[in-house]
């Protein structure tokens, strides 16, 4: 999931998952540049794999990712 330095964040907000994913833009950076040019992935991503940032699609998924990183 990572290819360089990582910055972990804890987002505390109503509908935080949806808000973060909106800021990220589409997973495919090329699509993000077409549809949401100001999004994080449009600005900093290269393609579907090197798309600059991760955003879980649910709280359950986020918890699973956090637990897996705690053991790395």
The CATH class, by name, is: Alpha Beta
For the secondary structure, the number of strands is 0
What is the CATH T-level topology?
A: Alpha-Beta Plaits
| Distance N to C terminus | 12 Å
Can you name the CATH architecture?
A: 2-Layer Sandwich
- Proportion of strand residues: under 5%
CATH superfamily: Nucleoside diphosphate kinase-like domain
Secondary structure class reads mainly alpha
- Average of pLDDT: 86
Element pattern in H and E: HHHH
Counting structural domains, the number is 1
Report Rg: 13 Å
Helices, by number, come to: 4
Uncertain runs with pLDDT below 50, 5 residues or more? none
- Helical content, roughly? 40-55%
Describe the main β-sheet briefly: none
Assembly category: single chain
Shape: globular
Please write out the topology.
Elements: H1 16-24, H2 29-35, H3 40-44, H4 59-70
Summary, kept brief:
The chain is mostly helical. It has four helices and no strands.
Describe the protein in words.
By secondary structure, the chain is mostly helical. The protein has a single domain (16-70), classed as Alpha-Beta Plaits, CATH 3.30.70.141. Helices cover 46% and strands 0% of the residues. It is built from four helices and no strands. The protein has helices at 16-24, 29-35, 40-44, 59-70. The longest helix is centred in the C-terminal third of the chain and has 12 residues, at 59-70. The model has no long low-confidence stretch (mean pLDDT 86).
């Amino acid at each position: 999931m990572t290819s360089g330095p990582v910055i972990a964040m804890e987002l505390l907000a109503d509908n935080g998952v949806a808000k973060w994913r909106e800021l990220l833009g589409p997973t495919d950076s090329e699509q993000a540049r077409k549809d949401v040019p100001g999004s994080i992935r449009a600005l900093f991503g290269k393609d579907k794999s090197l798309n600059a940032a991760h955003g879980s699609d649910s709280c359950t998924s986020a918890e699973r990712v956090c637990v897996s990183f705690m053991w790395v």
